[in-house]
Design a protein that fits this description.
The structure is a single chain. 68% of the residues lie in helices and 1% in strands. The chain has 488 residues and is mainly alpha-helical. A two-stranded antiparallel sheet has the order 1-2. The longest helix has 32 residues. The protein starts with a helix and ends in a 10-residue tail after the last helix.
């Protein structure tokens, strides 16, 4: 009897661990057709959601029943999720504007589902990889999943630029893994669209590969000459990011580069002062900073100029007219992201009238017709969505969505949670343990890209930032500071 119980326990543990590794491997699939049908969503339907739900049913109750403990970072996250659930309840106490008879109950359930999925991604990631060995195994699966994603992305861009089209076989293959189509002359990977490929790269893959490269860390024993697997993946990942032609993704990654340049500047200034024994340290620091700022400005202008020659959307990047009726929105429209700006402004307008608790998660779409700026009605996409789409319009910006739907209270709780994660990541980055240090820098890089990435994505259900934040908490909880790692 005892032997049989041990066998069942072993089978259960292996099943749970297999589901976790499958979740990690499935991260590149952001709009998986099978899951999309199950949750009735054509956009946000990550394949990893299937596995996190299975883990929530099979592993989480047992873990809690056995007295399993979570890292302390789970507490502020749960506070945010609970408050967000509370705003959904508050929404039913208000007189909501009618929007094409869209069901309030279905909107509430969708809000609960997206929040719940995000909460599960974070909670499971913080607790299931509960040792240094398991965390390193998780990172190795991140690498192998990244290989498949990168190969498919680079094949897409090579075929599209060579033949100006995709083969029927490629389109059929893409439909097996995504509800959307391939984009001409842009890499999409297995994501819903090119910007979502950049989102994945910036919030998980590139951040780990860059951190591993800087810290000379690897979870694999083999090397390609002097290069680790992570070094090679970083180079290929940067190529895929550029090939996505995601402007938001490129700017987000440039923020990380700027951060690294600033760190290099500080070290360079200190080196100059120590070498020359400079007395006026403030002056040297100021001159060095100004010099590097000019270099950054030149790189930025040069990058925009090159992009304007390759991306038709950027042809008017240096053309700004202050005489237009609404010059900022007109400039954004010329660069073909005017719709995004008016959605952001709409979210801000909603927040201005509902500043404390917001209108409730999932309910901002009901307020769109009332709060859209006048300029919005000149844009074809806005008119098409309002006139022909039966679904709610959305803010498409996590920051303004948080303000509009959870108010200053929810926004503050979420920022507090992010600051706690930042302090945790900074602490890990100073560790003597290679795994902890690498995940710490990964977290710092991710939180920097997160600032700009979330200006174009507003979903709580996408797993990427919850996964990386969960790894930070897991590393701080499950890898002791004095535990050595044999990492090259």
């Amino acid at each position: 009897m005892k032997t049989k119980r041990l066998q069942l326990e072993t089978i259960w543990q292996k099943t749970v661990w297999f589901l976790w590794l499958a979740l990690v491997a499935a991260l590149p699939l952001s709009s998986f057709p099978i899951f999309a049908k199950l949750i009735h969503s054509s956009a946000v339907a990550p394949a990893s959601g299937i596995f996190v739900l299975l883990l929530a049913a099979l592993w989480l109750p047992v873990f809690i029943f056995k007295g399993g403990r979570f890292p302390f970072q789970v507490r502020p996250a749960l506070l945010f999720f609970l408050f967000s659930f509370f705003t959904i309840g508050l929404a039913f106490l208000k007189v909501l504007p009618d929007y094409k008879n869209v069901s309030l109950v279905s909107s509430a359930l969708e809000g609960l589902a997206t929040l719940g999925l995000g909460a599960l991604f974070f909670i499971v990631t913080t607790a299931l990889p509960d040792s240094q060995e398991r965390i390193k195994k998780t990172l190795s699966v991140v690498n192998w999943g990244g290989v498949v994603m990168l190969v498919w992305s680079l094949v897409q861009i090579a075929v599209s630029f060579t033949f100006n089209d995709f083969t029927d076989g490629m389109r059929a293959f893409q439909h097996l893994f995504s509800t959307t189509v391939l984009f001409d002359r842009r890499a999409t990977g297995f994501a819903s669209e090119p910007s979502w490929l950049a989102h994945q790269l910036n919030l998980v893959y590139l951040m780990y590969w860059m951190s591993a490269t800087i810290n000379r860390f690897t979870v694999h024993k083999f090397r390609l000459w002097k290069f680790t697997f992570e070094n090679v993946l970083l180079a290929a990942g940067l190529l895929a990011l550029v090939a996505s032609f995601s402007r938001g993704g490129l700017v987000s990654f440039m923020l990380v580069l700027a951060f690294l340049f600033i760190l290099a500047n500080v070290r360079f200034a200190r080196w100059l002062m120590s070498k020359w024994r400079v007395r006026n340290r403030a002056l040297v620091g100021l001159l060095t900073g100004l010099g590097m700022a000019l270099i950054y400005l030149g790189i930025l202008v040069g990058g925009l100029f090159i992009l304007s020659k390759f991306d038709p959307r950027m042809e008017t990047v240096f053309q700004f007219s202050s005489t237009a009726d609404n010059p900022i929105l007109k400039y954004a429209d010329d660069l073909q992201f005017g719709e995004r700006v008016v959605y952001w402004q709409t979210g801000w307008n909603i927040f201005n009238d509902h500043p404390v608790f917001g209108v409730g998660v999932g309910f901002s779409g009901y307020y769109f017709p009332r709060y859209l700026p006048d300029y919005a009605w000149r844009l074809p996409e806005v008119n098409a969505l309002y006139g022909w789409s039966s679904g709610l319009m959305n803010v498409k910006n996590l920051w303004t969505r948080l303000l509009a739907e959870t108010g200053i209270v929810g926004f503050s709780i979420f920022l507090t949670f992010l600051f706690i994660m930042l302090f945790t990541a900074v602490g890990l980055s100073k560790s003597n343990n290679g795994t902890r240090r690498t995940i710490g820098w990964m977290g710092i890089f991710m939180l920097i890209t997160f600032i700009f990435e979330e200006f174009s994505v507003d979903s709580f259900a996408l797993p990427y930032y919850w996964f990386t934040l969960g790894l930070i908490a897991a590393a701080s909880r499950w890898i002791p500071e004095d535990e050595k790692s044999m990492d090259g």
